[in-house]
Amino acid sequence: MAECITALEYEGGITAIDSGMVRPQMAACYLLETESTLAVVEAGNNDSADRILQVIASRGRSPQEVSHVIVTHVHLDHAGGAGKLMQLMPNATLVAHPRGARHLIDPSRLEASARAVYGDVQFDRMYGTLIPVAGERVIVMQDGDSLQLGQRRLEFIDTPGHARHHFCIWDEQSRGWFTGDTFGISYRELDTENGPFIFPTTTPIQFDPPALIASMERMMEKDPDNMYLTHFGRVQDVRRLAADMKLSVQQFADLGSRFDADKNREEKIQTEMMDWLTGRARNHGVGCSDTRLRDIFGNDVVLNTQGIEFWLDHGRNK
Ligand SMILES: [Zn+2]
Q: Total domain count for the chain?
């Protein structure tokens, strides 16, 4: 495969690798380097493995040096390629959330629920076959647990709100969080002179607005300098982004409640969310065409609306 892979290299031995899903710079996997060991955070899908191996090779390192593959949660844009990566990284241990581990060992339920969200055609195109991981190669990290990678110490905290099987990973060395989906989405194509643009991901089926806000507040207690987002790459200016995220989570929840009884609920939520996002992007100084902007947000608006509707029907009053 001779294709050119986007790999954004940051200080401290951290590289965001474009996992190649859907469109350029939509989803990332991260390579963490220390002198004695390597780790991968987020596994992308099965096709991402080649890209990760190419970046490892370009560093003069080998897949045998990877001691840990870590997935923030078991949604498939984060964990779909875990089984494939584990085949290619024979010395690696897979690190998962206590609620996620069994779904990586036996991915059949994961596959069924993802097919329900995406439909068979899109599922087959995006994920193909999910490869199970042997149970003895999987460890879980409870809230507060840590992991030593050479001189680098990673700390894990439970971060429900996007999903109940989600943890985030604190890297003391770079004073940054690997946020998975808890700190939302920030596409680099929406960067302006005002900095990054951010918005929440509320995909089905465990969106929980108060829990999401509480998880972000816990992350902010570390006073982080960096957030390494799966969608996509590192962002700084973290305090402003945290405020933007809180406002948007509240806005999305209100939007859902407002249209809950409407007979065209899905369409109304989608339209309002798209208008809110495009309006905020324009205020932020994003200059691309309306068509392009709606294209960038389109997929997320559909999935976010599904997640908000699920929350309205099942989660809100529990
Ligand atoms: Zn995701």
A: 2
Distance from Cα 279 to the centre of ligand 1, integer Å? 23
Q: How far is the CA of 290 from the centre of ligand 1 (A)?
A: 24
pLDDT in tens, 22-56: 889 999 999 999 999 999 999 999 999 999 999 99
Looking at the fold, whether 223 and 259 belong to one and the same domain comes out as no
Q: Which residues contact 203 (CB under 8 A, 6 or more apart)?
A: 75, 117, 162, 181, 303, 304, 306, 307
Q: How far is the CA of 261 from the centre of ligand 1 (A)?
A: 29
d(CA 144, CA 252): 30
Instruction: Fill in the amino acid letter for 126.
Output: M
Q: Which domain holds residue 297?
A: 244-315
- In angstroms, the CA 42 to CA 69 distance is 7
How remote is the CA of residue 28 from the centroid of ligand 1, in Å?
Answer: 9
Last residue of a domain, one of 221, 238, 255: 238
Note the pLDDT tens digit of each residue in 178-210.
999 999 999 999 999 999 999 999 998 899 999
Which residue type does 74 have?
V
Ligand 1 center to 297 CA (angstroms)? 14
Distance 95 CA to ligand 1 centre (A): 17
| C-alpha span between 298 and 172 (Å, rounded) | 35
Cβ < 5 A residues, ion ligand 1: 77, 181
Distance CA 86, CA 70 (A): 11
